[in-house]
Design goal:
The protein is mostly helical. The protein has helices spanning 14-38, 44-67, 76-100, 106-113, 116-126, 133-156, 161-180, 190-211, 225-252, 255-258, 261-276, 283-302, 324-333. The protein is 69% helix and 0% strand.
């Protein structure tokens, strides 16, 4: 006899979703400033790797103290899913942001990374979802804003073109990891999932940093006090607190709502960059920023919402909804629908 279909994940309280969003909005907006200060005297990949590995170990210790070692037990598919998401978000996403901010101002970096929701919308379309014309228009508007930010600076040489390209690649990777996080087998416990992503992503970053020769840049006493303080801030607030909140949101809120952090973070980052690091904010940058933020807000407000999740208890990945007839067969037979779109 076939087992009964798994119960859907219970909806998270709205207040808890918004509380997690506020943490991600404010704390991650400030991490661009923190990263810029860290890479001023520390090698970017090794610093990022140490940040995430320490944060992951600390979070794991807290979870085991509260729930015992059994709480960290996961299946191989779940571990593989956490490794993929951790690699996409941390190794490629955050790693390239850290490298890019060696030559690109933190405010500009945050604005470029602000295109993440546009990439998410494109991925949703490639996955078979129907995207409205308004959503398509928002994508076009956003990439026009990105072009205004990147192209003139690249041509004039006022900002490092390679650094800006790395930030664009980082944005695509982060959006990809976010998109697939609910479509892969992941640890059921969001905090356990975050811990494994942090540890695995941190190890990947450290290994990559060693491979590319960053250890040669490490000198005793060569790190500034500001870099050390910023790294501690990134570990405690940017990783343990905000990354955990973000991971929880990916499993408990629609991806379109989670992606709204990308048009709040740049505002926080620009304000901090201008007032703390005295970064220049020119009219062209303001125009590009307005286009990107407006396009993301427009997409979130008018785009079609993601389908309701159908996640099995344990480690089963999200199965896209099929047609109405396939959903009817799912209810009658208790068998999962075919992955024919959402």
């Amino acid at each position: 006899m076939a087992p009964p279909p798994a119960s859907p994940r219970p909806a998270a309280p709205a207040w808890l979703v918004w509380a997690a969003l506020v943490v991600v909005y404010i704390v991650w907006g400030s991490t661009y400033l923190g990263i810029r200060i860290v890479v001023d005297s520390m090698p970017p990949l090794l610093a990022a790797g140490a940040r995430f590995l320490v944060a992951g170990l600390a979070l794991s210790a807290i979870l085991m103290l509260r729930g015992g070692p059994a709480r960290m037990r996961v299946t191989r598919p779940q571990l593989a899913g956490a490794a993929f998401v951790g690699g996409a978000l941390l190794l490629v996403g955050n790693g390239l942001v850290s490298i890019g901010e060696e030559t690109v101002p933190s405010a500009l970096a945050a604005l470029i990374v602000g295109v993440i929701p546009l990439v998410v919308l494109i991925l949703r379309r490639l996955a078979g979802e129907t995207i409205t014309r308004a959503g398509i228009g928002g994508v076009v508007l956003g990439f026009v804003g990105l072009g205004i930010l990147v192209v003139p600076r690249g041509i004039e040489g006022t900002t490092d073109l390679l650094g800006m390209v790395l930030l664009i690649v980082a944005s695509i990777s982060w959006a990809t990891g976010s998109f697939f996080s609910s479509r892969l087998p992941m640890p059921r416990d969001a905090l356990v999932s975050a811990a494994y992503q942090l540890m695995l992503g941190g190890v990947m970053l450290l290994m990559t940093g060693l491979v590319v020769g960053e250890w040669a840049r490490v000198e005793a006493g060569g790190f500034s006090q500001a870099s050390i303080v910023s790294l501690v801030y990134l570990i405690v607030f940017g990783s343990v607190l905000a990354y955990t909140a973000y991971t929880w949101l990916l499993q408990n809120a629609p991806i379109s709502r989670v992606a709204t952090y990308a048009y709040v973070n740049p505002v926080v980052a620009v304000v901090l960059g201008v007032f703390v690091l005295d970064e220049r904010l020119d009219p062209v940058m303001i125009i590009g920023a307005i286009l990107i933020v407006a396009s993301v807000a427009f997409i979130i407000r008018t785009g079609s919402p993601p389908a309701v999740r159908d996640v099995a208890v344990g480690s089963a990945p999200m199965r896209p909804r099929g047609t109405r007839m396939e959903r009817l067969r799912h209810r009658v037979r208790g068998s999962p629908g075919r992955a024919t779109g959402r």
